[in-house]
Design a protein that fits this description.
The protein is built from four helices and no strands. The chain is elongated. The chain has one domain. The longest helix is centred in the C-terminal third of the chain and has 32 residues. Helix 3 packs antiparallel against helix 4.
Length: 97
Amino acid sequence: MAWLLDLCPPDYRAHEVLRRHPAVLARFAALHVDGAVGAARRGLATVRSDLRDIATTETIEAAISALEREGARLAATRRAVTLVEEALRGRQFRARL
């Protein structure tokens, strides 16, 4: 629960339903992380044009690199949230060779 709450905006902690129902919290966390993944993708698509008048080429390249790393981190987080959400919904997982 703490990890899922950490993925969400701080104000989510004020909602009792999220603190009492882990599956509901997992759904909210998944939606929030999905939004962040989308924002990172949009950022990558527009960062060059958005920053070309205010940043150097080196700064823009560093921003692109940061967005790429953040996008990868968020995608991994989204996969982890999906696994937690599915487990909370009762899905059984079996080890594969």
